Amino acid sequence: MASKIQQLQSQACQASKFVAKHGTAYYKQLLEQNKQYIVEPPSVEKCNELSKQLLYTRLASIPGRYEAFWMELDLVKQMWKNRKELKVEDAGIAALFGLECFAWYCAGEIVGRGFTFTGYYP
Fold first, then answer.
1. Superkingdom of the source (predicted)?
2. Looking at residues 9-18, what average pLDDT do you find?
């Protein structure tokens, strides 16, 4: 156990040295590549304004997403009514989608338990 802690400390030290050496250059490069998204002058008021714009833009998009959801649901209902004409490929895609949803649910449960598989908290 002690050797694992020392190994982890060594890796953390190496990572820290790497970030100290290359972090500033990466930061400058990142800002240069994304300068079109930077608002001048940077101020608290501008940040508050942008956060409000984001919030209300997202709220304004809800009706469109709501309509798209019901259109998708109508499509699924229509497919269910015509299930006799359903192709094997469509059924396979639906099964894979259901499996993916279940996998994300399981992953969320594992994350919610603190990345434990048994639910045991030491």
1. Eukaryota
2. 87
